[in-house]
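Example 3.2
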Amino acid sequence: MSTAQIKSTAVEAVMEFSNNFKDFGSDMPCVMGIDEAGRGPVLGPMVYACAVTLLNNENMLVKMGVDDSKVLTETKREEIFERLKGDNISEAFGYACRSVSAQMISASMLARTKCSLNKLSHDCATELLKLAVDNNINVVEVYVDTVGPKGSYQAMLNKKFPDMRITVSEKADAKFPIVSAASIVAKVKRDRALKNWVFPERAVSVPPNGYGSGYPGDPNTKNFLLKAIDQVFGYPNLVRFSWKTTEVLLHEKAVKCKWRDPENASGSTITSFFKPCSNEKNYSSVKNQFFIDRCLSNISKCSDF
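Structure, written as C-alpha coordinates:
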Protein backbone atom coordinates (compact mmCIF):
# COMPACT_ATOMS: atom_id res chain seq x y z
CA MET A 1 0.00 0.00 0.00
CA SER A 2 1.72 3.18 -1.14
CA THR A 3 0.91 6.72 -0.09
CA ALA A 4 -0.08 9.95 -1.79
CA GLN A 5 0.82 13.44 -0.64
CA ILE A 6 -0.47 16.96 -1.12
CA LYS A 7 0.67 20.42 0.07
CA SER A 8 4.38 19.78 0.38
CA THR A 9 5.54 23.30 1.29
CA ALA A 10 7.67 23.97 4.37
CA VAL A 11 5.25 26.34 6.07
CA GLU A 12 1.91 24.81 5.13
CA ALA A 13 0.62 21.62 6.70
CA VAL A 14 1.40 18.49 4.66
CA MET A 15 -1.39 15.98 4.08
CA GLU A 16 -0.48 12.37 3.31
CA PHE A 17 -2.79 9.40 2.90
CA SER A 18 -2.72 5.76 1.87
CA ASN A 19 -3.67 5.05 -1.73
CA ASN A 20 -6.68 3.04 -0.59
CA PHE A 21 -8.05 5.97 1.43
CA LYS A 22 -10.32 7.24 -1.35
CA ASP A 23 -13.61 5.32 -1.34
CA PHE A 24 -12.31 3.13 1.49
CA GLY A 25 -14.84 0.51 2.55
CA SER A 26 -16.95 0.88 -0.61
CA ASP A 27 -19.67 2.73 1.35
CA MET A 28 -19.75 0.14 4.15
CA PRO A 29 -19.96 1.62 7.69
CA CYS A 30 -16.51 2.50 9.03
CA VAL A 31 -14.95 3.53 12.33
CA MET A 32 -12.19 6.14 12.54
CA GLY A 33 -9.65 6.99 15.24
CA ILE A 34 -7.66 10.23 15.50
CA ASP A 35 -4.48 10.86 17.49
CA GLU A 36 -1.29 12.93 17.32
CA ALA A 37 2.43 12.74 17.94
CA GLY A 38 4.74 15.65 18.68
CA ARG A 39 2.74 18.18 20.69
CA GLY A 40 5.42 18.52 23.36
CA PRO A 41 8.79 18.52 21.52
CA VAL A 42 10.70 21.70 20.77
CA LEU A 43 11.96 20.20 17.48
CA GLY A 44 10.16 19.03 14.40
CA PRO A 45 6.56 18.73 13.25
CA MET A 46 3.39 17.82 15.04
CA VAL A 47 1.72 14.96 13.17
CA TYR A 48 -1.99 14.19 13.35
CA ALA A 49 -3.20 10.87 11.97
CA CYS A 50 -6.51 9.16 11.41
CA ALA A 51 -6.92 5.41 11.04
CA VAL A 52 -9.99 3.84 9.47
CA THR A 53 -11.33 0.30 9.34
CA LEU A 54 -14.68 -1.37 8.84
CA LEU A 55 -17.10 -1.15 11.74
CA ASN A 56 -16.72 -4.03 14.22
CA ASN A 57 -13.37 -4.96 12.66
CA GLU A 58 -11.13 -3.65 15.44
CA ASN A 59 -10.27 -7.16 16.69
CA MET A 60 -8.09 -7.49 13.60
CA LEU A 61 -5.99 -4.58 14.90
CA VAL A 62 -5.67 -6.15 18.34
CA LYS A 63 -4.46 -9.42 16.81
CA MET A 64 -1.79 -7.47 14.91
CA GLY A 65 -0.43 -6.14 18.21
CA VAL A 66 -1.79 -2.60 17.87
CA ASP A 67 -1.45 -0.69 21.14
CA ASP A 68 -0.83 2.82 22.42
CA SER A 69 2.33 3.92 20.59
CA LYS A 70 3.88 5.18 23.84
CA VAL A 71 4.12 1.65 25.26
CA LEU A 72 5.67 0.18 22.11
CA THR A 73 9.34 0.30 21.17
CA GLU A 74 10.37 2.13 18.02
CA THR A 75 11.16 -1.20 16.35
CA LYS A 76 7.73 -2.60 17.23
CA ARG A 77 5.95 0.53 15.99
CA GLU A 78 7.78 0.33 12.67
CA GLU A 79 6.95 -3.36 12.35
CA ILE A 80 3.24 -2.84 13.01
CA PHE A 81 3.08 0.18 10.71
CA GLU A 82 4.58 -1.80 7.82
CA ARG A 83 2.05 -4.58 8.43
CA LEU A 84 -0.80 -2.05 8.45
CA LYS A 85 0.44 -0.78 5.08
CA GLY A 86 0.51 -4.28 3.60
CA ASP A 87 -1.46 -5.00 0.45
CA ASN A 88 -2.99 -8.06 2.11
CA ILE A 89 -5.05 -5.85 4.43
CA SER A 90 -5.58 -2.91 2.08
CA GLU A 91 -9.33 -3.57 2.12
CA ALA A 92 -9.39 -3.57 5.92
CA PHE A 93 -7.26 -0.58 6.94
CA GLY A 94 -6.46 2.90 5.66
CA TYR A 95 -4.93 6.03 7.09
CA ALA A 96 -4.23 9.70 6.52
CA CYS A 97 -2.01 12.14 8.37
CA ARG A 98 -1.54 15.89 8.57
CA SER A 99 1.93 17.13 9.46
CA VAL A 100 2.30 20.67 10.83
CA SER A 101 5.88 21.94 10.58
CA ALA A 102 7.74 23.61 13.44
CA GLN A 103 7.82 26.72 11.25
CA MET A 104 4.03 26.75 10.91
CA ILE A 105 3.57 26.14 14.65
CA SER A 106 5.87 29.07 15.43
CA ALA A 107 4.21 31.36 12.89
CA SER A 108 0.75 30.54 14.22
CA MET A 109 1.54 30.87 17.92
CA LEU A 110 3.63 34.05 17.53
CA ALA A 111 1.39 35.84 15.02
CA ARG A 112 -0.26 39.17 15.83
CA THR A 113 -3.51 37.25 16.13
CA LYS A 114 -2.23 34.23 18.02
CA CYS A 115 -3.40 30.68 17.34
CA SER A 116 -2.91 28.26 20.23
CA LEU A 117 -1.54 24.75 19.87
CA ASN A 118 -4.94 23.43 20.95
CA LYS A 119 -6.61 25.33 18.10
CA LEU A 120 -4.05 23.96 15.64
CA SER A 121 -4.77 20.46 16.96
CA HIS A 122 -8.53 20.88 16.63
CA ASP A 123 -8.09 22.17 13.08
CA CYS A 124 -6.00 19.11 12.19
CA ALA A 125 -8.66 16.72 13.49
CA THR A 126 -11.35 18.64 11.60
CA GLU A 127 -9.33 18.55 8.37
CA LEU A 128 -8.84 14.78 8.66
CA LEU A 129 -12.57 14.22 9.13
CA LYS A 130 -13.32 16.50 6.17
CA LEU A 131 -10.79 14.53 4.12
CA ALA A 132 -12.66 11.31 4.92
CA VAL A 133 -15.97 12.87 3.88
CA ASP A 134 -14.44 14.27 0.67
CA ASN A 135 -13.06 10.82 -0.16
CA ASN A 136 -16.47 9.16 0.18
CA ILE A 137 -15.69 7.14 3.31
CA ASN A 138 -18.82 6.21 5.23
CA VAL A 139 -17.56 7.08 8.70
CA VAL A 140 -20.27 6.40 11.28
CA GLU A 141 -18.15 6.25 14.46
CA VAL A 142 -15.18 8.42 15.46
CA TYR A 143 -12.90 8.21 18.50
CA VAL A 144 -10.61 11.14 19.23
CA ASP A 145 -7.91 11.61 21.86
CA THR A 146 -8.81 14.82 23.64
CA VAL A 147 -6.88 18.08 23.49
CA GLY A 148 -8.08 20.59 26.05
CA PRO A 149 -11.56 20.28 27.62
CA LYS A 150 -13.22 17.27 26.01
CA GLY A 151 -16.77 18.62 26.35
CA SER A 152 -16.28 21.70 24.19
CA TYR A 153 -14.06 19.76 21.77
CA GLN A 154 -16.72 17.10 21.24
CA ALA A 155 -19.47 19.73 20.90
CA MET A 156 -17.46 21.46 18.18
CA LEU A 157 -16.92 18.22 16.25
CA ASN A 158 -20.57 17.17 16.67
CA LYS A 159 -21.68 20.48 15.22
CA LYS A 160 -19.40 20.13 12.20
CA PHE A 161 -20.14 16.43 11.60
CA PRO A 162 -23.67 15.77 12.91
CA ASP A 163 -24.04 12.46 11.04
CA MET A 164 -21.15 10.81 12.90
CA ARG A 165 -21.17 9.33 16.40
CA ILE A 166 -18.15 11.07 17.89
CA THR A 167 -16.46 10.23 21.19
CA VAL A 168 -13.74 12.50 22.56
CA SER A 169 -11.88 10.87 25.43
CA GLU A 170 -8.77 11.14 27.56
CA LYS A 171 -6.23 8.41 26.83
CA ALA A 172 -8.25 7.28 23.83
CA ASP A 173 -5.06 5.77 22.39
CA ALA A 174 -5.05 3.28 25.27
CA LYS A 175 -8.81 2.60 25.23
CA PHE A 176 -9.72 2.18 21.56
CA PRO A 177 -7.67 0.02 19.14
CA ILE A 178 -8.52 2.27 16.18
CA VAL A 179 -7.03 5.26 18.03
CA SER A 180 -4.01 3.13 18.96
CA ALA A 181 -3.51 2.47 15.25
CA ALA A 182 -3.71 6.21 14.54
CA SER A 183 -1.17 6.89 17.29
CA ILE A 184 1.27 4.41 15.70
CA VAL A 185 0.90 6.03 12.28
CA ALA A 186 1.43 9.51 13.75
CA LYS A 187 4.43 8.47 15.84
CA VAL A 188 6.18 6.60 13.02
CA LYS A 189 5.64 9.48 10.59
CA ARG A 190 6.99 12.04 13.06
CA ASP A 191 10.01 9.92 14.00
CA ARG A 192 10.88 9.42 10.34
CA ALA A 193 10.49 13.13 9.59
CA LEU A 194 12.84 14.03 12.45
CA LYS A 195 15.38 11.33 11.63
CA ASN A 196 15.51 12.20 7.93
CA TRP A 197 15.45 15.97 8.35
CA VAL A 198 17.56 17.90 5.83
CA PHE A 199 18.42 21.43 6.97
CA PRO A 200 17.65 24.02 4.26
CA GLU A 201 19.84 26.49 6.14
CA ARG A 202 23.59 26.44 5.64
CA ALA A 203 26.18 25.51 8.26
CA VAL A 204 23.85 24.28 11.00
CA SER A 205 25.96 22.96 13.85
CA VAL A 206 24.72 19.46 14.71
CA PRO A 207 26.64 17.72 17.54
CA PRO A 208 28.07 14.20 16.92
CA ASN A 209 25.23 12.64 18.93
CA GLY A 210 22.61 14.40 16.82
CA TYR A 211 19.63 16.38 18.08
CA GLY A 212 17.87 13.61 19.94
CA SER A 213 14.12 13.07 20.24
CA GLY A 214 13.27 16.76 20.14
CA TYR A 215 11.90 16.84 23.69
CA PRO A 216 13.27 19.69 25.86
CA GLY A 217 14.46 17.23 28.52
CA ASP A 218 16.53 15.11 26.11
CA PRO A 219 20.27 15.81 26.74
CA ASN A 220 21.06 15.57 23.02
CA THR A 221 18.28 18.02 22.20
CA LYS A 222 19.55 20.41 24.88
CA ASN A 223 23.07 20.22 23.47
CA PHE A 224 21.83 20.81 19.92
CA LEU A 225 19.89 23.90 20.99
CA LEU A 226 23.03 25.32 22.59
CA LYS A 227 25.24 24.57 19.56
CA ALA A 228 22.84 25.49 16.76
CA ILE A 229 21.90 28.99 17.90
CA ASP A 230 22.80 31.89 15.62
CA GLN A 231 23.16 35.17 17.50
CA VAL A 232 21.28 37.12 14.83
CA PHE A 233 18.90 34.68 13.15
CA GLY A 234 18.25 32.38 16.09
CA TYR A 235 17.54 28.81 15.04
CA PRO A 236 16.95 26.75 11.89
CA ASN A 237 13.30 26.13 11.10
CA LEU A 238 13.42 22.67 12.67
CA VAL A 239 13.09 24.49 16.00
CA ARG A 240 9.83 25.82 17.41
CA PHE A 241 10.46 29.47 18.28
CA SER A 242 7.21 29.61 20.24
CA TRP A 243 8.46 27.20 22.95
CA LYS A 244 9.59 28.60 26.31
CA THR A 245 12.83 26.61 26.03
CA THR A 246 13.69 28.43 22.80
CA GLU A 247 12.58 31.81 24.12
CA VAL A 248 14.85 31.54 27.17
CA LEU A 249 17.90 30.48 25.14
CA LEU A 250 17.38 33.24 22.58
CA HIS A 251 17.11 35.77 25.40
CA GLU A 252 20.35 34.50 26.98
CA LYS A 253 22.48 33.76 23.90
CA ALA A 254 21.24 35.86 20.98
CA VAL A 255 21.66 39.55 20.21
CA LYS A 256 19.10 41.66 22.04
CA CYS A 257 16.46 43.29 19.86
CA LYS A 258 14.89 46.60 20.79
CA TRP A 259 11.66 47.37 18.99
CA ARG A 260 10.50 50.94 18.36
CA ASP A 261 6.92 50.26 19.39
CA PRO A 262 6.65 47.16 21.59
CA GLU A 263 3.19 45.70 21.43
CA ASN A 264 1.06 45.47 24.51
CA ALA A 265 0.81 41.75 25.25
CA SER A 266 -2.72 42.21 26.59
CA GLY A 267 -3.80 43.82 23.32
CA SER A 268 -5.47 47.17 22.65
CA THR A 269 -8.97 48.04 21.61
CA ILE A 270 -9.62 50.25 18.61
CA THR A 271 -11.13 52.91 20.86
CA SER A 272 -7.82 53.31 22.72
CA PHE A 273 -6.43 55.10 19.67
CA PHE A 274 -8.97 57.94 19.96
CA LYS A 275 -9.40 60.70 22.52
CA PRO A 276 -12.58 62.64 23.24
CA CYS A 277 -12.40 66.12 21.77
CA SER A 278 -14.18 69.19 23.14
CA ASN A 279 -15.69 71.56 20.60
CA GLU A 280 -14.26 74.47 22.59
CA LYS A 281 -10.67 73.39 21.98
CA ASN A 282 -8.78 73.30 18.72
CA TYR A 283 -6.43 70.30 18.49
CA SER A 284 -3.72 70.19 15.86
CA SER A 285 -2.87 66.82 14.37
CA VAL A 286 0.44 65.24 15.35
CA LYS A 287 2.49 63.81 12.51
CA ASN A 288 3.28 60.12 12.83
CA GLN A 289 6.94 59.26 13.50
CA PHE A 290 6.96 57.15 10.32
CA PHE A 291 6.55 60.28 8.17
CA ILE A 292 8.96 62.35 10.27
CA ASP A 293 11.71 59.74 9.85
CA ARG A 294 11.30 59.84 6.08
CA CYS A 295 11.01 63.64 5.76
CA LEU A 296 7.54 63.33 4.23
CA SER A 297 5.05 66.19 4.20
CA ASN A 298 1.43 66.62 3.20
CA ILE A 299 0.63 68.35 -0.08
CA SER A 300 -2.64 69.85 -1.25
CA LYS A 301 -1.81 70.63 -4.89
CA CYS A 302 0.76 69.65 -7.51
CA SER A 303 2.58 72.99 -7.19
CA ASP A 304 3.66 71.92 -3.69
CA PHE A 305 6.14 69.45 -5.23
